[in-house]
Amino acid sequence: MATLIARNAEMLLTMDSNRREIAGGGLFARDGVIEQVGPSTELPTKADLVLDLGGHIVLPGLVNTPPDKTRPCLDGCKPSIRSGPVSLRRPYMCLR
Predict the structure, then answer these.
(1) Domain definitions of the chain by residue range
(2) What is the domain class of 3-83 according to CATH?
(3) pLDDT tens across 17-70, in order?
């Protein structure tokens, strides 16, 4: 089974009922399926692929969505996220 850890994101924006914004967040996935999201310090430490996502925004659950469609998802976020230096035009990886 292939595993992935994406850690140290500038911000991880959850789509849960609390709309949590986790600075320094990340996720753990196995075979392309997300199993855990949260602060990077609470994720497993080993995986087949480990990505350092410093300077990136992570939107778990938004799969294969063009940047012009993800921008409205940020409307409810803090102003620093909506207008900050992090670009949504960077390449992205799709997980389900």
Answers:
(1) 3-83
(2) mainly beta
(3) 888 899 999 999 998 888 999 999 999 999 999 999 998 888 876 655 566 665
